[in-house]
Amino acid sequence: MSLSIKNTRSTYGLASISLHWIMALAIIGLYLLGLYIDSLDYYDPNYRTLPHWHKSIGIILLGFYVFRLAWNLINPHPEPLSQPALAQLATKIVHKLMYVLIILILVSGYLISTADGRAIAVFNWFEIPAIPALLERQEDTAGFLHYWLATGLISLAGLHALAALKHHFINKDQTLNRMLGKAQSTQE
């Protein structure tokens, strides 16, 4: 059985699965890279290179985020699996909160990077222009928010992963398999 590009009533399609895992790995990688960057001093050889990578990957992640939102609008999710109403509500809240946190992190990262009026060079392929500073001490304020929003997102993603593992190993349902493209097929 080959995996469809689009979602079906019972499982996620290749596009949704790919977007989920690419974004998950990018977010985890960016978080770890950001923590490492924060530990660098001015004389470290990576002081200029790694922030450039962090910003570039962040802008590319924004592109994936926008595409994922558009994809979700034209390609509905599979039907929810049977679970208690409170668990369904918690799932919806966590997913929506993760989407909100992602955009807030991306916006705060942009505000940090452009606080001095310089554009963001994305791997030197193209530039994202700066807007005039919106806040006094914008870099500091946005940096504080960026860190704590990212830490909140990583924490929620950890809970999300634990919930998926619980569904797989304890509930023995198809939740994780659907996001791995391994759900048992039903008649579509």
Short recap of the structure:
By secondary structure, this protein is mainly α.
What does this structure look like?
With 188 residues, the chain is mainly alpha-helical. The protein is built from 5 helices and 2 strands. A hairpin with a 3-residue loop joins β1 and β2. α1 runs antiparallel to α2 (49-74), α1 (14-39) packs across α4 (138-171) and α3 (85-113) packs antiparallel against α4 (138-171).
Number of strands: 2
Biggest sheet details? 2 strands, antiparallel
Any low-confidence stretches, pLDDT <50, length ≥5?
none
Helix content: 55-70%
Number of helices: 5
Rg value: 19 Å
SSE pattern: HHHEEHH
Structural class: mainly alpha
Mean pLDDT: 93
Strand order of the largest sheet: 1-2
Beta-strand share of residues? under 5%
SSE topology:
Elements: H1 14-39, H2 49-74, H3 85-113, E1 120-122, E2 126-128, H4 138-171, H5 175-180
Helix pairs in contact: 1-2, 1-4, 2-3, 3-4
Characteristics:
3% strand; mainly alpha; two-stranded antiparallel sheet; 188 residues
